[in-house]
Design goal:
The chain has 200 residues and is an all-alpha fold. It contains eight helices and no strands. It has one domain.
Length: 200
């Protein structure tokens, strides 16, 4: 049974495992991107991922792809949860009130172009300093845990994928074998591209 090609998760995972670079660099880049995705830095997440990946020698595209974790559909529940967690350290308004403000902020994002990153960031900072600080604290905690989990999982997935690719080449040579929709069933390493959609 073929994986659902329309699945966002499938496309994101395929984008990561088929990237150029060493498995370790890809896994580290993914961990960096996952960590940043849970921080309230909407508008700057991809740029931050690329910057820190460059700083430590990780894979830059791998650090940018997880920015799509926090998109218009997931921002309210994700950041409401990180706020709830952070509010134990930095108290603020109720979680229901924060969720309401996040929904309004997401609606306002639709008025900005992709390049207006400073306005996207301002929408979240202006919901309240107490809220933002608590979200940031909770985001660091959640992001740190998820990053720690994503590193070994991504490392395993990339290594496993490359073993499957080598086995595929050994069976079929260099010819492409396609699924019923005309897509390569096992795309070569280095063919990954970031999935569309979401907020950076």
């Amino acid at each position: 049974m073929q994986p659902p090609h329309h699945s966002w998760f499938y496309r994101a995972m395929r984008s990561v495992v088929t990237l150029h670079g060493s498995p370790e660099a890809i896994a580290l880049g993914t961990a960096i991107g996952v960590f940043i995705a849970f921080t309230p830095t909407v508008g700057f997440q991809m740029a931050l991922g690329a910057f820190f990946a460059t700083l430590v020698g990780a894979n830059r595209p791998a650090a940018m792809i997880p920015a799509w974790i926090t998109n218009p559909l997931t921002i309210p529940p994700v950041f409401a949860f990180t706020y709830w967690l952070g509010s134990f350290i930095w108290p603020g308004p109720s979680v229901d009130e924060v969720y309401r403000r996040l929904v309004i902020a997401v609606r306002n994002l639709s008025h900005y172009g992709f390049h207006e990153i400073h306005k996207q960031f301002a929408e979240f900072f202006l919901i309240g300093v107490d809220i933002y600080v608590a979200m940031f604290i909770g985001g660091v905690i959640v992001g740190g845990v998820c990053a720690a989990v994503s590193y070994p999982l991504t490392l395993w997935a990339v290594r496993r994928y490359r073993l499957l690719w080598e086995a595929h080449r050994a069976r079929h040579g260099d010819s492409d074998h396609h699924d019923g929709a005309g897509r390569p069933d096992v795309p070569p390493p280095g063919s990954g591209t970031p999935p569309p959609g979401g907020q950076g």
